[in-house]
Write a structure and sequence with these properties.
Protein name: 18264_t:CDS:1
Shape: globular
Number of helices: 5
Number of strands: 0
Strand content: under 5%
Largest sheet: none
InterPro entries: Kinase-like_dom_sf
Structural class: mainly alpha
Radius of gyration: 18 Å
Helix content: 40-55%
């Protein structure tokens, strides 16, 4: 999508805890649904539920071939629809992103003592009444 994850909030212990509780970056609406679903599978808190790198590679290779051949597959249809929507949005709205001054995109050590196993985004959404 080109968007930086969590750019509008401080990258601190609170963000770390929220991620462990299932918070994930928002996937923009201009990202095709098949790609969004693959991203969410890769984010699964349970490693055994995540696709392997080989599986992701195979999926992306197939999708790339479909796009290169302009096939009438679901991924090509979704990409074209999202491109049209994205083009319409950029014509009507000026995009800019403000980065929070405490958002850091380099490694940093965050002191913490309460570590727990991560949760999935669905668990986070249910706990915080988002669903």
């Amino acid at each position: 999508s080109g968007n930086l994850a969590f750019s509008d909030i401080p990258h601190d212990i609170s963000l770390m805890h929220n991620i462990l509780h299932g918070l994930r970056p928002a996937i923009p609406s201009h990202v095709p649904m098949l790609i969004a679903k693959l991203i969410m599978k890769c984010w699964d808190a349970r490693p055994n539920n995540r696709p392997t790198s080989e599986k992701v590679y195979d999926i992306l290779r197939i999708w790339n071939n479909d796009v290169s051949n302009d096939s009438s597959t679901e991924i090509v249809i979704q990409i074209k629809e999202c491109e049209e929507t994205s083009n319409d949005l950029t014509k009507s709205v000026e995009y800019y992103y403000k980065t929070h001054p405490e958002a850091k995109y380099t490694s940093q050590f965050i002191e913490h003592t309460n570590y727990q196993l991560p949760l999935n985004a669905l668990d986070y959404d249910e706990k915080h009444g988002i669903l």
